[in-house]
Design a protein that fits this description.
Two copies of one chain form a homodimer. Chain A is of the alpha+beta class. Chain A has ten helices and twelve strands. Chain A folds into two domains: about 130 residues, 60s Ribosomal Protein L30, Chain: A, CATH 3.30.1330.10; about 150 residues, Phosphoribosyl-aminoimidazole Synthetase, Chain A, domain 2 (Alpha-Beta Complex). In chain A, the strands form two sheets. Chain A has a seven-stranded mixed β-sheet, with helices on both faces. In chain A, α2 runs parallel beside α6. Chain A starts with a helix and ends in a 12-residue tail after the last strand. Chains A and B meet through α1, β2, β3, α3 and β4 of A and α1, β2, β3, α3 and β4 of B. Chains A, B: InterPro entries: PurM-like_C_dom, PurM-like_C_sf, PurM-like_N, PurM-like_N_sf, ThiL-like. Chains A, B: Its EC number is 2.7.4.16. Chains A, B: GO terms for molecular function: ATP binding; magnesium ion binding; thiamine-phosphate kinase activity. Chains A, B: It holds the Pfam family AIRS.
Chain lengths: ~300, ~300
């Protein structure tokens, strides 16, 4: 995140004093039982100019759904706001990706705005997603020392895919798909929200997002690097040694879920997750403020860069 | 509206099949008792690069509130999505205008997104406003032949202000203020919504917006040009003859309300409007599809350009 963005958000925080804003420390706002989120993606910032337009449409919808997933909310409706620049073919294919994601996750598109900008202006694509939360809508800030720290999904795949695309614009395969077509963990999020003292999605790097959950929860965390869930595709590309695990723990665009759950939480007893859902315990919330990393060889120095600070 | 925008919106319509979308024919979506709207404004399209940043912030909030007003909804919350480009002074003053409008109309800012774009990229400023509707949330499409057509506000002031600014960047006065600082008719909208068979805000020109209300309501309208509410400032600048009235009836950025009300509607009996609210009957909905204009001299040819088609 740039200094400009940080300063702007600090000024915003002074305006957003309503309890529904959750101090802008959450990814969402909560109004009654509704969960509201808005993410904007921009060409050259959040996606590559050469990304297939359908995957850009898919991503716009699913990054917002990932925020709903992190609060255990059911998708209710979306408003889309996009700039268009007269490239009807691009826009057509973009819309087909939006439609596919809305269909896949039962998200009715109910309105929004479309504005024409000159051809050279970077596209700005925004979506407001509205979801209905359950009895408990976890924030980032409810965790306590002793809670287990759990993760749904795998880490680092999208970063491997992005690196492959930057090296070769025609790269393909599951890692490229992970970068282009994030999958929001809606079903797992709904079930975990009932039990979670704190929950958020991991989109800027596990360590960075975990540090945010810790800061909001006024505690620290101990994370076992060896427990981090890595896909076979990731391991084939990067291996699974300490260096590879640190790269997975600091990579962006995972759209995994990070949840603080009671110390004695047993998913086999409490949850009935869709088959293929990857839920693992990766650590424990602790007293203090420190983020401590461990692996089989002992304590691991915390990297300077905890994640991808570009996103907001 | 450009051909590209029209084509894009046609494609969107095919996606937005949920009843809450109201076929994208309304300015808002309705989910339960919530009214949702999103308007984006862009530099060089919806405001002038030299407009004071605080007035741009004010406008971003109030154009969205005008959509809530047109459905009789109480403001509940807003999510703001803006691009920033490192001009902290501009952004600071922009935020002060956002804050002033949120304060004036009790709209809590509860979230959103901020993304950094290169300095040369045009700013794109979006807001999702959420309101709570009353027992009846009028659409554009409920009007019937015989209904009276009523207007809240005055016409043409913002267009006079914009013309003054285009002639002289330092122009000032109430017409310039009307362009820069629209006033959403929230109180009048709330009271009228109870009685209105159809209602919308007038932002693209009365005749264009009236033709949209007529199309959605499957009827025509007869409008009495002599009844159009003109401000003293407008009359001082443009006069009040037929030509002046046609220019007021086709000017953009009025943010007035247009309501279809029962034939025997009497505001003195049914409403208790804030003092200074300007509510007048301007015509009648009719059978057929025609928009007919009249004044004291007889029928007035309908102008080719009904309004400002640039906005969406």
């Amino acid at each position: 995140m740039s200094i400009g963005e940080l300063a702007f958000i600090e000024r915003l925080r002074a305006l957003a004093t309503h309890p529904a804003a959750r101090g802008l420390d959450d990814d969402v706002a909560v109004v009654g039982d509704l969960v509201l989120t808005h993410d904007t993606i921009a060409e050259g910032v959040h996606y590559l100019p050469d990304d297939p337009p359908a995957s850009v449409g898919w991503k716009l919808v699913t990054v917002n759904l990932s925020d709903l997933a992190a609060k255990g909310a059911e998708p209710v409706a979306a408003l889309m706001s996009v700039t268009i620049s007269g490239d009807g073919d691009w826009e057509d294919r973009f819309l087909s990706g939006v439609a596919a994601a809305c269909e896949a996750y039962s998200l009715p598109l109910v309105g929004g705005d479309t504005i024409a900008l000159p051809l050279h202006a970077p596209r700005v694509l925004g979506l407001t997603a509205i979801g209905r939360g359950g009895a408990h809508i976890p924030s980032r800030g409810g965790g306590s020392p002793g809670d287990g720290l759990w993760l749904v999904g795998t880490l680092g795949d999208a970063a491997v895919g992005l690196a492959a695309l930057l090296a070769d614009i025609n790269a393909e395969g599951p890692m490229v798909e992970a970068y282009r077509r994030p999958v929001p963990q809606l079903a797992a999020g709904r079930q975990l929200a009932v039990h979670a003292s704190a929950m958020m999605d991991v989109s800027d790097g596990l360590l960075l997002d975990a540090s945010r959950l810790c800061a909001a929860s006024h505690c620290g965390a101990r994370i076992d690097l060896d427990s981090l869930p890595l896909s076979r595709g990731f391991i084939a590309e990067r291996g699974s040694d300490r260096k590879a695990r640190l790269s997975a723990a600091t990579a962006g665009d995972d759209y995994a879920l990070l949840a603080a759950l009671p110390a004695d939480f047993d998913p086999a007893v409490s949850l009935s997750l869709p088959s293929g859902t990857n839920l693992v315990r990766i650590g424990t919330l602790t007293e203090g403020k420190e983020l401590t990393l461990l692996d089989a060889m002992g304590e691991v120095p915390t990297p300077e860069q905890l994640g991808y600070e570009h996103h907001t």
